[in-house]
Amino acid sequence: MQIFTWLADYVAYNLLHLEKGQHLTSAIHFFIEDTSKIFFLLLVIIFIITYIRSYLTPEKVRSLLVKKGKNVYFAHLLADLVGIITPFCSCSAVPLFIGFVEAGVPLGVTFTYLIAAPTVNEVALVLLYGLFGWEIAAIYILSGEVIAFFGGIIIGALKLEKYVEGYVYENVSTEIDLEVEDVKITFKERVNESFEYTMNLIKKIGIWVIIGIGMASGMHGWAPTGFLAQIAGPGNPFAVLIAVLVGIPLYSNAAGMIPVVSELIRLGVPVGTALAFMMSVTAVSLPETILLRQVIKPQLIAIFLGIVTVSIIFTGYLFNFLIP
Amino acid sequence: MIIKILGTGCPNCKKLYENTKKAIEMGQVAASIYKVEDVREIMKYKVMTTPVLVIDEKVVFKGKIPSPEDILKTIFNEMLNKNKDS
Questions:
Q1: How does strand B2-6 pair with strand B52-55?
Q2: DSSP A30
Q3: Which of A44, A64, A217, A315 could form a Cys-Cys staple with A30, CB 3.0–4.6 A?
Q4: Catalytic residues of B
Q5: What predicted TM-score, i.e. pTM, was given to this entire model?
Q6: Contact B43 A59 (CB under 8 A)
Q7: Contact, A262 vs A132, CB < 8 A?
Q8: Which residues of chain B are within 8 Å of residue A65 when distances are taken between CB atoms?
């Protein structure tokens, strides 16, 4: 990643002839380095994930879970792992849910997948890796996976099938065709489609990433560290709680929030607090929850939201304890 | 020709609806478009990802938003297939 520092050095000192050591210089240097690095990573990583995903359709995931998931813990683990690379649009949550339940995937396993897929968000992953390195990115994946694994197990153990709307189970008896035919797409088409998807996504979130990094570089030289440390720093025991409650409604602007979050870490906000904030922004999606109401009753929605929120808050405190 | 767009009402589904409308205008195709938002109706098509484009009860796209040009191509292909059959 050294190359992006060189690029920023070259642009700031050789092209723009900025003076070293100035606030403005360091802000511009930071902006160039981080935008170029993050857009490069977004392009490469999202392309790779999209390419792999073109082989793993929801139908395949379902048949995998039904055929290989005889052992319930293994089924949870499998749902958890495929959840990393197959995020789905929140509007697919309902048909996906019904499709899983119809085929006999246990409710708990279905929820593990429903939690894992949005919790580990590939854009957030790219930003964390780009800004903090692989250790923090790995912690992010791991905590998301643990939350999804145990969240699903708890929901399974509570026997909550009664809170699923009756019509979902109406079709269970009908034979579901689990043989998934391989879609005949050529390698070239897969690459083209993945590239197109990647470019569309970058177009959609790019402006937010730039705004986010812009705000972060604005804070880079000037922000009053003391003030931030006071409200969100290690001194405030409620910081994680507040961060999560603020994060949940911010769902739609996840990509733009994250560079700001990363700058908060640099300014002394503990990693756990920042991580909890980011996970609450990406994992708890209000649009998805509203749609899920069509298939599950409010009690189960409340339990689902409760488990995820509590786990994220717990993760936040845990990491603040481990990495003070 | 009957074209249906299946989706629970998210921005992606609206985009697919607009693209389909454009495709029909571009190709001067005689078709009626319907939106299907009821989950039970959607599940009859055995799909797990939305939005979905259905042409005369056949699922032609699912889980993505094709461009108006791609939709028009598919519409023409479907018309050719039908003529062969009859």
A1: antiparallel
A2: H
A3: A217
A4: 10, 13
A5: 0.80
A6: no
A7: yes
A8: none
Q: Considering CB atoms only, which of A89, A96, A177 is closest to B10? A: A89
Look up the ipTM and state it.
Answer: 0.79
Treating both helix axes as pointing N-terminal to C-terminal, what angle do A122-132 and A271-283 enclose, rounded to 10 degrees? 160
Q: Is B39 on the interface with A (CB under 8 A)?
A: yes
Residue A107 CA, chain-centre distance (Å), reads 22
- Kindly report, residue by residue over A302-321, the tens digit of the pLDDT: 998 899 899 999 988 988 88
Rounded to a whole number of angstroms, the distance from the CA of B32 to the nearest CA of chain A is: 24
In terms of Cα–Cα distance, which of B50, B54, B9 is closest to A88? B50
Taking the CA of residue B46 and the nearest CA in chain A, the distance in Å comes to: 8
Q: Say which residues have a Cβ less than 8 Å from residue B31's Cβ, sequence separation at least 6.
A: B1, B2, B3, B24, B75
Distance CA A79, CA A112 (A): 6
- Over residues A194-206, the pLDDT tens digits come to 898 888 888 877 8
Q: For residue range A238-259, list pLDDT tens digits in order.
A: 888 888 887 777 665 555 566 6
Residue with tokens 């813990």: A73
Shortest CB distance from B10 goes to which of A91, A167, A171? A91
